[in-house]
Structures are given as C-alpha cells and as structure tokens.
C-alpha cells in the first residue's frame, strides 16, 4: 500500500486522538498513564481540525492515519477562540476531582488554565505546529516530508516561519528538529524551537 500525505478532515479526529495518546509520553505511549486516554488529543491534536485559524495534514498508509502535523497560522487568534469556545466545554466534561491518575488530573487542570504562547514565540512567527507519528513510521523520512508539506502551506499564507514546543525529555525529537534547521528562539524556553523560512 502507498503512503501519502493529505489534508486532514474532522473525520480524522479519532485517529489523531489515538496517535496523540500513543506518543504523549515523550514520544512513547501514554496509555498506562490515563483512564481518559482522549485527554492528550483534546489538547494537542483534535482542536486543529475543529477550530478556526488552524491547518492540519495527515500521513496515511492505505486507509489508516499513522501520523499528523497540525497547527495554527495565527496562534493568538487560535488561543482566543479556544479560550471562549473549546477549553470551557472540555473542562466541564473532565472535573479534576473525578481524575484518579496524576496525568488525568494534570490535563483536567490544564483545561481550566490553558497555557498560552510566550511573546518571543509570536514575535518569531504567529504560526505554531504539533507533529506526531506512530513509532514504526519514524526514521524513514516521513517526518521531514510532513514538515516540508506544512512549510509550503505556511509560506503560501505569507508567514515568515513556524515554531513548536517539545517535551524536554524527547532527545530524539530535538535532534530531528535541529537536522531540519530549527533553532532556539531568543527569550523563549529551551524546549521551544523555530524554523525561519527566509
């Protein structure tokens, strides 16, 4: 079967949610950390096929979605909309007092006080991204192709670059981004890197 990259649709939501869970522990599966396995995806994947000011592409093997790259071309507008229309709805579904596991409680609290981008990130570029793929598809050039697909799309939107935050424990991810030309952003935390299109 051929592996392709295509634009994501809302129908891809369940796949994005599963992939996010299977990579949420610094690139490894977080299944053992959650009773509510949908929580990582509700924060880091699914909003990008539901909300305005977003874009998303998926890596597909046959008919199965095996990876995704998602983001916003206008992070501040995305944050503002999500703060009013997405996080409150999710927060109501997941009261922290119902969570038994620490990671479920952490996400339930996050839904009530979602982090926003640091100002140096926005000065670097209004656009940010998240990328994940199943382990068996890593190291085969698909991550690079997904990043290239996103970069071409964002260039067409007239954006100067893109940035992302990563889990500081994920050393392999940092090496991957550095190989693609991502660098630290002055004034931003060490786990944030950006790629300039110029």
Automatic annotation (TrEMBL):
Instruction: Name the SUPFAM superfamilies on file.
Output: Acyl-CoA N-acyltransferases (Nat)
Q: Which residues form the N-acetyltransferase domain?
A: 3-198
Superkingdom of source: Eukaryota
Q: GO biological process annotations for this chain's record?
A: glycoprotein metabolic process
A UniProt-annotated Pfam family: Acetyltransf_1
- Alphabetical list of InterPro entries matching this protein: Acyl_CoA_acyltransferase, Glycosyl_Hydrolase_84, GNAT_dom
Any one GO molecular-function label of the UniProt entry: beta-N-acetylglucosaminidase activity
Q: What is this protein called?
A: Acyl-CoA N-acyltransferase
Species of origin reads Roridomyces roridus
């Amino acid at each position: 079967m051929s592996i392709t990259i295509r634009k994501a649709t809302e129908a891809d939501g369940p796949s994005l949610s599963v992939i996010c869970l299977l990579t949420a522990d610094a690139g490894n599966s977080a299944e053992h950390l959650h009773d509510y396995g949908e929580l990582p995806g509700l924060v880091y994947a699914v909003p990008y096929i539901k909300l305005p000011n977003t874009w998303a592409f998926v890596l597909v093997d046959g008919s199965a979605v095996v990876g995704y790259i998602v983001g916003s071309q206008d992070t501040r507008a995305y944050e503002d909309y999500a703060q009013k229309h997405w996080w409150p709805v999710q927060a109501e579904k997941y009261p922290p007092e119902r969570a038994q596991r620490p990671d479920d409680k952490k996400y339930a609290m996050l839904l009530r006080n979602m982090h926003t981008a640091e100002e140096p990130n926005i000065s670097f570029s209004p656009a940010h991204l998240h990328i994940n793929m199943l382990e068996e598809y890593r190291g085969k050039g698909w991550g690079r192709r997904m990043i290239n697909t996103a970069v071409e799309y964002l260039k067409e939107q007239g954006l100067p670059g893109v940035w992302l935050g990563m889990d500081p424990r994920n050393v392999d991810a940092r090496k991957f981004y550095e190989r693609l030309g991502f660098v630290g952003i002055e004034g931003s935390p060490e786990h944030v890197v950006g790629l300039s299109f110029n």
